[in-house]
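Amino Acid Chain and Its Fold in Token Form
===========================================
What this section holds: a protein sequence and its matching fold, both as plain text.
Structure line: whole-number tokens from a learned vocabulary of local backbone shapes, matched to residues.
Purpose: to set a sequence beside its fold so the mapping can be learned.
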Amino acid sequence: MRTSSASSAPRTETEALAVSVSARPGRARGRLSGPGWLPYLYLLPALLVYGAFMLFPLARSVQLSLYDWDGLSLATFVGFGNYLDVFADERLRAAFGHALVLIFFFSILPVCIGLVLAAVLSRAKVRGIGIFRTLVFLPQVIAMVVVAVAWRQIYAPDGTINTVLRAVGLGDAARAWLGDYALALPAVGLVGTWVSTGLVTVLLLAGVARIPKEQFEAARLDGAGPVREFFALIVPSVRPELTVALTLTIIASLKTFDLVYVTTGGGPGSSTTVPSYEVFRRAFEQGQVGSAAAVGVTLTLLIFAINVVVNRIGERER
């Protein structure tokens, strides 16, 4: 009897603890997990920083957008009058239209180029692919002001583009690219294409790299050519990366300021002005702080709405 009793008793402290936990699961689990508010306590520092540097300035901008204020004198409450001016002012409407045009150059065109590059590199064995990724991604690490200054020189009347055109006998096509009413905005947009293509290509290359090689081999055994493989295999497989690329590039296109400020200053006339530049011009040049805040809030809502649609479409197609 003594032998049986001794063998049935827990042999170690660990076994004794296990028996205690199994006997009182609810109470033990509560002690181990702690109070329900404890996880939020760990998040509190990040939430405080986010609130101080993001939510508070945004709320302050919304408040300022309801006033007519020059930044110095007493403000006058005008309600949604500044927002009505955003839609009534022809210059502001044109600025938002230019921002939507830049989406094509900053986002749509780089995504198309990046998809083609990713598809070509996935089929071909290219040496030095790491160096290629670095070179393509290089515009992302260069300050946009530096990029703008360099491209302003390239577009200058005596710049690189016009020099090459004259050298090949196409001097009649040479012009002041950033001074042409019809070509200034596309010229600025192409700079955005050059900057964004590297980021999009690297993202899509990462997406293509995670596609199992067996799927490529199976597609080729079925007789799929490059075009069919592109649309049937590569594009559906990189939809998450496409969603990320579209989100980042659309945000970049809609909030661009430094590129326009350095290259054209919104000109010629107002042919390249964009909402971010209008915020700067109204707040710091014209003293219309309330109007500038309204433009900024409207731009924020537009960016949020477009990216919600992009992410919803991306999630729906997965």
The first helix runs from residue 2 to 8. The domain at 82-316 is CATH 1.10.3720.10 (MetI-like fold). The radius of gyration is 29 Å.
